[in-house]
Amino acid sequence: MRGIFRATVASPAPASSWDVRTETAVASVRSTDWMLAARADLAEVFAHEGSVAVRNIKHPLTPGEVMLFPGDGTDVRPDARPTGPVRWGPPRINNFNARTTVP
Q: Does domain 3-100 have CATH number 3.60.10.10?
C-alpha cells in the first residue's frame, strides 16, 4: 500500500484487530480513529483516538513494536524499528488532516 488514508474503525469482536500492511510497516488497530501515510521508504502512523500497534513489517521477529495512544505518532523506515511513540505537534497533525479531508 502506498498513499495516505484515515480510518475510523468501529469496535470489532472482542480480542480482534484490523491490520494494514505497507512496504515498511504493519499497523494493527482496535476501535480507533487513525491515519497512515505510506511510501516505499517510510510509513507514518498517527492515532487520533483509541490505540494502534505498529511494527516493522520487514523484521517481524525484531523487538520494537510501539503502541500509539491518542496524539501519538511513529515513523517506520526500512530496516529500522518504529520511532517513538512521539507526541505529534499541531503542524504535522494539521497536515495529515488536510491530506485526508474530503472536500
A: no
Enumerate the domain spans of the chain. Answer: 3-100
Rounded to 10 degrees, what is the CA torsion of 73, 78, 79, 85? 0
DSSP string, 39-77: ETTEEEEEEEEEEEEEEETT-TTSS--EEE-TTEEEEE-
Which of 102, 95, 103 has its CA nearest to residue 73?
A: 95
pTM reported for the whole predicted model: 0.75
Distance CA 27, CA 51 (A): 10
What's the Cα-to-Cα distance from 10 to each of 13, 34, 62, rounded to whole Å? 10, 12, 30
Beta-carbon contacts of residue 61 (< 8 Å; ≥ 6 apart): none
- Sign of CA pseudo-dihedral 36, 12, 62, 70: positive
Q: Which three cell numbers stand for residue 44?
A: 507514518
pLDDT of 1: 59
